[in-house]
């Protein structure tokens, strides 16, 4: 078990760790925790009542958070010709084709956070699957990162689009901003994320869909939210 610092222990004493809170109270508790020496990321973990081993019970999608993520997202776009020009004008940090693929393969270069590609470039990008896949960087049509509408894709990403997807433990884990946002903005982002996850409920899912919902900062204890009030 990891050794906990004095701030963590002090934060634990500020609230009932076993209690199920409403969203507003949870965000107030979270933003009232001791401050680290950096602006902590606020994370959400949602345990779902689905079985991700079945294709028809996968939960995956994207949502644009109303207040962004607080992170400066570096976007790499695989495109050629006019589409490359469109990506550059839309604010892509890196734009290219085979030469960028080679840079990733030979130099182990990963100075980017999101990869977007036009459909015609997926033959090139596909060869990077073993490198991009484990890092969650592989473009996918379902997440809007394989598209011809690069302007919209980049606008959404820069505005604070996050991807949520089920892991092997049937948990969705993603971010909703920075602690410095304050309770109100974090609540708005949380509600937008949860609305998307609830909307993505598979038709084949049976029983209770939202099992546990926990929010935390990078350094804090988790605060439980009552899933029954979320829909």
Automatic annotation (TrEMBL):
<comment type="similarity">
    <text>Belongs to the universal ribosomal protein uL1 family.</text>
</comment>
<comment type="function">
    <text>Protein L1 is also a translational repressor protein, it controls the translation of the L11 operon by binding to its mRNA.</text>
</comment>
<dbReference type="Pfam" id="PF00687">
    <property type="entry name" value="Ribosomal_L1"/>
</dbReference>
<dbReference type="GO" id="GO:0006417">
    <property type="term" value="P:regulation of translation"/>
</dbReference>
<keyword id="KW-0687">Ribonucleoprotein</keyword>
<keyword id="KW-0694">RNA-binding</keyword>
<keyword id="KW-0699">rRNA-binding</keyword>
<dbReference type="GO" id="GO:0000049">
    <property type="term" value="F:tRNA binding"/>
</dbReference>
<dbReference type="GO" id="GO:0019843">
    <property type="term" value="F:rRNA binding"/>
</dbReference>
<keyword id="KW-0689">Ribosomal protein</keyword>
<keyword id="KW-0678">Repressor</keyword>
<keyword id="KW-0810">Translation regulation</keyword>
<dbReference type="GO" id="GO:0006412">
    <property type="term" value="P:translation"/>
</dbReference>
<dbReference type="InterPro" id="IPR023673">
    <property type="entry name" value="Ribosomal_uL1_CS"/>
</dbReference>
<dbReference type="InterPro" id="IPR002143">
    <property type="entry name" value="Ribosomal_uL1"/>
</dbReference>
<protein>
    <recommendedName>
        <fullName>Large ribosomal subunit protein uL1</fullName>
    </recommendedName>
</protein>
<comment type="subunit">
    <text>Part of the 50S ribosomal subunit.</text>
</comment>
<dbReference type="InterPro" id="IPR023674">
    <property type="entry name" value="Ribosomal_uL1-like"/>
</dbReference>
<keyword id="KW-0820">tRNA-binding</keyword>
<dbReference type="InterPro" id="IPR005878">
    <property type="entry name" value="Ribosom_uL1_bac-type"/>
</dbReference>
<comment type="function">
    <text>Binds directly to 23S rRNA. The L1 stalk is quite mobile in the ribosome, and is involved in E site tRNA release.</text>
</comment>
<dbReference type="InterPro" id="IPR016095">
    <property type="entry name" value="Ribosomal_uL1_3-a/b-sand"/>
</dbReference>
<dbReference type="GO" id="GO:0015934">
    <property type="term" value="C:large ribosomal subunit"/>
</dbReference>
<dbReference type="InterPro" id="IPR028364">
    <property type="entry name" value="Ribosomal_uL1/biogenesis"/>
</dbReference>
<dbReference type="GO" id="GO:0003735">
    <property type="term" value="F:structural constituent of ribosome"/>
</dbReference>
């Amino acid at each position: 078990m990891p050794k906990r610092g004095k701030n963590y222990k002090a934060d634990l004493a500020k609230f009932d760790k076993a209690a199920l809170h409403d969203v507003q109270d949870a965000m107030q508790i979270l933003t009232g925790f001791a401050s680290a020496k950096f602006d902590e990321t606020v994370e959400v973990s949602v345990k779902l009542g689905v079985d991700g081993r079945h294709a028809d019970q996968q939960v995956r999608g994207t949502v644009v958070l109303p207040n962004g993520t607080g992170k400066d997202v570096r976007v790499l776009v695989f495109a050629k010709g006019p589409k490359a020009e469109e990506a550059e004008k839309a604010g892509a940090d890196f734009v290219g084709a085979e030469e960028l693929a080679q840079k990733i393969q030979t130099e182990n270069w990963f100075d980017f956070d999101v990869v977007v590609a036009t459909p015609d470039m997926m033959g090139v990008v596909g060869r990077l699957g073993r490198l991009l896949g484990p890092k969650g960087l592989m473009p996918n049509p379902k997440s809007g990162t394989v598209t011809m509408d690069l302007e919209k894709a980049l606008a959404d990403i820069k505005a604070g689009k996050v991807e949520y997807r089920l892991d092997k433990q049937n948990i969705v884990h993603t971010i909703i901003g920075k602690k410095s946002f304050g309770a109100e903005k974090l609540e708005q982002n949380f509600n937008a994320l949860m609305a998307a996850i609830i909307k993505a409920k598979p038709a084949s899912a049976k029983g209770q869909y939202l099992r546990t919902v926990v929010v935390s900062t990078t350094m804090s204890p988790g605060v439980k939210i009552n899933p029954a009030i979320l829909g």
